[in-house]
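re: that chain from earlier
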Amino acid sequence: MDKRIYSDSWHQVADLQVGVLHDIKITRQLYRGRKWYVLQDPYGDRFFRITPQAYHFLMKLDSEQPVGAVWLNGLQTNAEDTPTQDEVVALLSHLHACNLLYFKGRANSKDMFERLVDRQQKEFQGKLASFLYLRIPLWNPERFIHKYRFWIARLLTVKMLVVWLVAGLLAAKAVVENFDQISAQTQGVLAPANLPYLYLCLVFLKFIHEAGHVMMTKRFGGTVSTTGIMLLILTPIPYMDASSSWAFPNKYQRMLV
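^ sequence. v structure.
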């Protein structure tokens, strides 16, 4: 190995007996030609992408052996695929801060709750600092969307894609054929009297846009836990969270979302 194997901080984790929480969902995916594993936090609804080497190391942690023993055994059996001590320290520190680890013989529910509250406070402070791009969650639409998953699956098909393409081509043809009339009608569209109507159109189109993300996410088995209002340069418009698509193993599914 060319990279440094040992770490000065190794003593902080070597004797710990830890494991990954059992309710963490792990998905294998191909991203930019490389294999990765995605860890999904079911409570914080966050996602973490790790390398195969880090994944295989985590799977060996069972809280029955200290971290140092697991790492040393991996180094002796398969040195090339074993992460360095620095990488292990960074990995475990990050997962611990994200409440994805449990410790043998330690009731860490209180610590996990405190870290969760601290993270939420920091996220809220960050939102206040970026007031020109502020998201305000209002509703969890998952139950409502799940109720209509049958119709979503029927709507998002190849046949409907063909219909959409034909409609788009016909619309483009109409614009080209009537360009002079359309150009004349758009004169003065930014007049002050028209601004409320333009804003309503923006909100409607943004809602349809976000609904497309949501339906495509649901079409491939994802979840949508948050919808609300986003203040984009102090302009309120709707938004929906489709971040569960990050864990989709198929890159084309992620692209479609």
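The beta strands are 18-20, 25-31, 34-41, 46-50, 101-103, 133-139, 227-232, 235-240.
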